[in-house]
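Box 3.1 A note on notation
Throughout this textbook, protein chains are presented in two layers. The first layer is the amino acid sequence; the second is a token string describing backbone geometry. Keep the layers aligned when reading.
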Amino acid sequence: MEKTNKKITSTDFLYFALVILGLAATVMLTNHTMREAQRTETAKKEAERLAEWLTKAGEARAKKESSGVDACDPPSEWAACQEALLNKEGPIGGLHNVIEDDGLIVAETCDKEKSETHGAYIIENGVPPGPGLPPAWAAITADTKLDAPLTLRVFVCGRSFHKIPVAEIKY
């Protein structure tokens, strides 16, 4: 019977070190991904608050009642309404970019060239191109008049700078 060498060699140590490093990297990446997912879900919930307010205000506007924010009632423009909504004393005060602390709160689109758009809320206005055709979507502009009903979509600019749909509403 042949005697086997049961000593641990440097190759064995290298193998164990690589396994431990691989496990540590897996744990770290999983933790990072979970935190990113939690922040994205929080951002979506915040965007739902915005969409809920816009929906209720749209219902009030349809009944020719006040939305509760003068800057969001006709004949105002979107810029004044957005400023009033984002004001800390506004109906959805405290709305902020939960993914990037120094990021934009509202952006026109997700833009990989502008990292501050990550986590921003995006509001698009549906403009009907003609009878019987679906609306063409574009970012709502500051000078959009609020005197007619609007069809809006709310998004969050998510990881990898893609738009995460939250709601489509009548305002």
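The chain is about 35% helix and 15% strand. The mean pLDDT is 92.
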